[in-house]
Amino acid sequence: MLRTILACTTLMPMLLACAPFAQADSISPEQVSLVDTTCMQVMGLRKGEYYFFQCHDSLAQSLAAKTDGQDMAAAYRDCRRRGLAEGTAAFSTCMLDSPARASRPQSMAVADTTAPGVAAGHSFYHMPPRERFQHERYSCAQLGLLPGTGTFGECVTSLEGAMTANPD
What we know:
By secondary structure, the chain is an all-alpha fold.
């Protein structure tokens, strides 16, 4: 039992350190640039910092979820247009095989990070909690997520959790 606990406490930080790199494979280079820019300009972080990696991982996961949701919606529409009945094996198989679900790089313009309500260049480490929350919200908006949607809320919650994680 003690061996298991020691192994988990030793391996877990190493596995978590690799998480940002694993996520980078599921988003395009343009999207990685958008995430990096957002973490630096909106959140006030610098590359190489613990919280930068936390921010990057959180936003990359949110962006990948957004893309997957868009692909799933396109696959659904495509299979409905083919006349397949929802809830059937043929419909489900169609959705899995849909060209809309095929991984494809997406080109994205780097968003304007000078949004009202966000002081660009303000260091993350000097923000009071209320201001930090605003920056987290604007970071999710920079990804094109719509405020008031579940995906937007999940992005903000994930980023807020990542930004309050203890680096020790």
